[in-house]
């Protein structure tokens, strides 16, 4: 891993009760998990619930799917504080599993009239994983780590645990890439023509 700072990021969002969305509904960030890495060392982690502003009451479907309570969300930070937190890592390369996290963040920033906090490039690790392994379909985060014979960190759909799992897959994929790019070590047989050498030896 080079000296580039990385930010492994995961969000959980609000969801409508069913396919008939309320007018003006859009997914709002309700939980953030991030792992900041620089020079191969974890330099910062952060996890918090985030209060939704446009639709502050969670649907039953959302609470059941994410195993969250309304009170937990109400104890969270505001969206402005979330943007401020993320801005501290504005120069890092942002790595997420899928592109939904960044899409929703942009949409939420637009709705709140806030500046998008990142200047570094975004990498969708699920796409890199798919290309690297030649998979036809994109793999889910936890399926991908299990394919490596490892387990996801903590529990699925907990933002910080998913951010850690993304970081762990990143390390595994980068290691595999390095292994493939490294030329095979030269064997002594590649340098010496043994058949000629043996002829010379037998002539003496």
TrEMBL record:
Residues 5-179 form the Exonuclease domain. Keywords: Exonuclease, Hydrolase, Nuclease. It holds the Pfam family RNase_T. It comes from the Bacteria. It comes from Ectobacillus ponti. InterPro entries: 3-5_Exoribonuclease, ERI-1_3'hExo-like, Ribonucl_H, RNaseH-like_sf, RNaseH_sf. SUPFAM superfamilies: Ribonuclease H-like. This is 3'-5' exonuclease KapD. SMART domains: EXOIII. GO terms for molecular function: 3'-5'-RNA exonuclease activity; nucleic acid binding. PANTHER family: 3'-5' EXONUCLEASE ERI1-RELATED, 3'-5' EXORIBONUCLEASE 1-RELATED.
